[in-house]
Amino acid sequence: MFRDEESLFKDQAYRYFLFGIFAIAVSIFLSDLILSEMAKYVKMSSDLRETLGEAFRLVVLMVVIFLGHMQGRIYASDRESFAYGLLTGLPILAIAAAQLVLSIVQADPGYFSHTKLIVSTITIYTLTGIFEELLFRGVVLNAFQDAFAAKRAGTIWVSLILSALAFGMMHLVNLASGQDVVGTLMQVIEATAVGLCFGAVYLRCRNIWVVVILHALTDLSRAIGTNAQTAVDAQNANVNAAASILSILPSLVILLGLTLFLLRKSKMEELVEERQEGGIEARPSLN
């Protein structure tokens, strides 16, 4: 019914959405299935298996990116966009850095004597940051945006929300590993908010390596904070479900508030103009 500028979706737009879903399914679920089958024949520790799992997913995802001819677009980087992205994501960077320092200060002194554990933790969460950002911001967000012929604020928001929901819902798989429902629900909600915020940063700078750094540092600061706490702290961290849910409200407010700020009307207009011109050379100002 609608054609040219009035058309909301591109012809065969469903292919873009299917490609995004395909990338998620293959890089996460299929790679995990293959690795679990391999683990039946090779003995390995849980840390080694998790590290190999993240590395294997990343390799599979890179193949998917290559098959989708998205490598030039996703991996593109320059000093200007990188510096601009770090400035755009500075609040997230500052919070993650402060949380990391606080975790180290409050850590059980014996934790840092486990060098192998620390190296394993850093490796796993770095690989996780690379994989999840390449997948959900690099592939999924871009694929969903490409499905819309109409280049306007509404379609950018829809693409961002859908990619963030996909990122959040992915954490439902933790139920299969025995995680409780409340804890998993908290992860889904918070991960969706994180997906919105990281997606907003990526849309502003179009440099995937910026959000990779933000993601890896955020996850690493939380992981060290969780693993390095004393036994008493660990017990107090799970007092009751209501308190646990309330504990994520401050981060939700910060993440959603920052998302709205980064994609405020004036900046969204610049993003729309950028997409209409078909390029990313014109960087929005920081003002």
UniProtKB/TrEMBL annotation:
It holds the Pfam family Rce1-like. Residues 117-220 form the CAAX prenyl protease 2/Lysostaphin resistance protein A-like domain. Signal peptide: none annotated. GO terms for molecular function: endopeptidase activity; metallopeptidase activity. InterPro entries: CAAX_protease, Rce1/LyrA-like_dom. One of its GO terms (biological process) is proteolysis. The chain crosses the membrane at residues 16-35, 55-76, 82-105, 117-136, 156-173, 185-203, 241-263. The keyword Electron transport does not apply. Keywords: Hydrolase, Membrane, Metalloprotease, Protease, Transmembrane, Transmembrane helix. The keyword Transmembrane helix applies. Coiled coil: none annotated. This is CPBP family intramembrane metalloprotease.
